[in-house]
């Protein structure tokens, strides 16, 4: 009974602190390497980034984040919880960000401020990324969330009222789908999807799957969602044609994003009591790539770290020093953003206009 009392006090404090600005006691993250905070460190997969120079600008060094520093979801978590709450959580639980679900130490009250389920190389489809062995697909991430919810319910002493209140306030962030193209549809040497589906049919298949997973989350009691579009994958260093964006790939991405935006609009009409936002990463990143100078960037067609193009074609070579002017680079390796670009994505989706995130931004969503 004493332990339950402590848990409820922690939850009440989180809600109270957060309500000074917004009302979201927890953030749960789903997705791929753009959101993975270290889950792949604990599973048998080849898709890892827990070595230098990854994390060169992150306080804890290489943690499994695919960037030089913070991810967009790290920065959004900071904005949502506010400096006061963030310091409170860090002091009380030692968790400045939602911890990776796969980390064995992630348990008990540590889960109350949120958990990260994202897994690098994973996708919407279970088969995506199989060549990397073992990434956690979106469907499995949702199942892991159900397990977390069950454990949190136990922390609340099976108190249905407290649990329902908690679940209705938490924020879900989802950023997934890039690998369904990069490590599935665009790899006919390994997958048959490009012969089975037209680009339009494939985009519809992916978005239908996302809709099913969002429904599964809704049925657990979650009511606040942010679902990010895919960025302009064809403009990443990995996909460039010479020094130009791969228009064929970007056209596929646009089909997916259009279907996803329509899904979010539809679910807002058909999920009673729920609020879902569509984050336009494609538009935000395209703005930067079209006119990088006002954002402080001078390099947008190559990654900051050294990449072995003959082997894996995307990740940093271990032990090779990256560029020194990292804030000037849009991309960290040949696929992933630098912290500087992640910060722009986080800022514009947190407080931006409807052209960046629709129909409301994260600040508005978390305050409802």
From TrEMBL:
Signal peptide interval: 1-18
GO CC terms, sorted: extracellular region
Family the UniProt entry places it in: Belongs to the 'GDSL' lipolytic enzyme family.
Biological process annotations from GO: lipid catabolic process
Record InterPro entries: GDSL, GDSL_esterase/lipase, SGNH_hydro_sf, SGNH_plant_lipase-like
Keywords in alphabetical order: Hydrolase, Lipid degradation, Lipid metabolism, Secreted, Signal
Keyword Lipid metabolism appears in the UniProt entry: yes
CDD domains recorded: SGNH_plant_lipase_like (cd01837)
Compartment list: Secreted
UniProt-recorded name of the protein: GDSL lipase/esterase
Any one GO molecular function term: hydrolase activity, acting on ester bonds
The organism's taxonomic lineage, starting at the top: Eukaryota, Viridiplantae, Streptophyta, Embryophyta, Tracheophyta
Transmembrane stretches, start-end: none
Organism: Dillenia turbinata
């Amino acid at each position: 009974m004493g332990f339950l009392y402590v848990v409820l006090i922690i939850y009440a404090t989180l809600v109270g602190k957060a309500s000074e600005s917004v009302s979201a006691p927890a953030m749960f993250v789903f997705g791929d390497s753009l959101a993975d905070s270290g889950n792949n460190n604990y599973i048998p997969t080849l898709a890892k980034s827990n070595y230098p120079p990854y994390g060169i600008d992150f306080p804890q060094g290489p943690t499994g984040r695919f960037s030089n520093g913070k991810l967009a979801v790290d920065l959004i978590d900071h904005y949502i919880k506010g400096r006061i709450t963030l310091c409170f959580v860090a002091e009380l639980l030692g968790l400045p960000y939602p911890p990776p679900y796969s980390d064995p130490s992630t348990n008990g009250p540590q889960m109350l401020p949120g958990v990260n389920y994202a897994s690098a190389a994973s996708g919407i489809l279970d088969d995506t990324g199989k060549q990397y062995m073992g990434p956690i697909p979106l469907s499995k991430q949702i199942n892991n969330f159900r397990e977390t919810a069950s454990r949190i319910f136990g922390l609340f002493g099976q108190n249905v009222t407290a649990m329902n209140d908690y679940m209705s306030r938490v924020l879900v962030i989802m950023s997934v789908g890039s690998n369904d193209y990069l490590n599935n549809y665009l790899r006919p040497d390994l997958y048959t999807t490009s012969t089975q589906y037209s680009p339009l049919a494939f985009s519809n298949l992916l978005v239908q799957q996302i809709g099913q997973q969002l429904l599964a989350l809704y049925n657990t009691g979650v009511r606040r969602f942010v679902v990010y579009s895919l960025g302009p994958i064809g403009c990443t260093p990995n996909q460039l044609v010479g020094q130009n964006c791969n228009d064929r790939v970007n056209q596929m991405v646009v089909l997916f994003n259009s279907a996803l935006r329509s899904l979010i609009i539809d679910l807002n009409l058909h999920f009673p009591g729920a609020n879902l936002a569509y984050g336009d990463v494609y538009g935000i990143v395209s703005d930067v790539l079209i006119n990088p100078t006002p954002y402080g960037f001078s390099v947008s067609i190559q990654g900051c770290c050294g990449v072995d193009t003959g082997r894996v074609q995307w990740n940093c070579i271990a032990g090779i020093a990256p560029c020194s002017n990292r804030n000037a680079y849009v991309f960290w390796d040949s696929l992933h953003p630098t912290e500087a670009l992640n910060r722009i994505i986080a800022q514009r989706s947190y407080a931006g206009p409807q052209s960046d995130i629709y129909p409301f931004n994260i600040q508005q969503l978390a305050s409802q």
